[in-house]
Amino acid sequence: MNFVKPETADISAFSPLKRISNEAVRWTDGFWHDRRLAVRDQGVQSLLEALDDPENGTYFPNFRHSAEGIGTHCGKEWSDGDCYKVIETMILIYDTDGGDDLDAKIDEMIGEIASAQEEDGYICTQITMTDKERWTEIHDHELYNFGHLFTAAVLHHQVTGKTNFLNIAIRAADYLYETFITHEPALAKFCFNPSQIMGLVELYRETQDQKYLELAQPAGL
Fold it and tell me: Residue 66: CB partners within 8 Å, gap ≥ 6?
């Protein structure tokens, strides 16, 4: 999918605060400067090591194993969502510090996520790697995971201009629209986390596709 960001995508009457450019501000000393360096120099590597530990609640190889149809799901039901959060952190570090190795690592992880996405756009390894059915148990955290996918993918597009992550999010959001815009009563109970709402709004702002904003609205508004 070839995606071109509309000229109006940065304009929103409902967004009084805007994301500034990565050249606009630098932490040069003090508490937050030290915390940012700690995340860059130790935190990211520590997180990546944790994501590769099957005993950890968040386990990144679930994506690859799901695509390959091997192994069992490791970690918690929200594992996918927390993996997206780690990638979001890596994107923010790349935004301020650059680095070809970090960029390549992010793209490698995005590729593994893409491999786990199903034909209709659905992606939740805690469902596809188990005998669970989609949208049957609220605590399976499906929408939570989708929401953090959207947020991370939008940030990646803003920072890098690449569409590889954004295209995954668009396919997933289109699936959610087709599934939930029906307003079936059995699906109403799944909207208990705000992450999917925030993610859909961010995706709307980035693409100007009205259906994402429509889906983020409470029913009847």
Answer: 73, 116, 125, 128, 129
Range ranked top by mean pLDDT from 12-16, 20-24, 97-101: 97-101
pLDDT of residue 22: 67
Which spans in the chain are helix H? 31-38, 44-51, 62-68, 79-97, 100-116, 125-128, 142-160, 164-180, 195-207, 210-216
**Which residue is it, tokens 């939008």?**
154
Q: How many CA atoms lie within 13 A of 136 on its CB side?
A: 6
| CA atoms of 102 and 16, how far apart (whole Å) | 32
Whole-prediction pTM: 0.90
Alpha carbon distance 117, 81 (integer Å) = 14
Distance CA 141, CA 79 (A): 9
Distance CA 66, CA 128 (A): 7
Which pair of tokens denotes residue 151? 């947020």
With 0-12 / 13-18 / 19 or more C-beta atoms within 10 angstroms meaning exposed / middle / buried, residue 116 is: buried
**pLDDT class of 221 with cuts at 50, 70, 90:** very low
> pLDDT value at position 14?
63
Mean pLDDT of the chain: 90
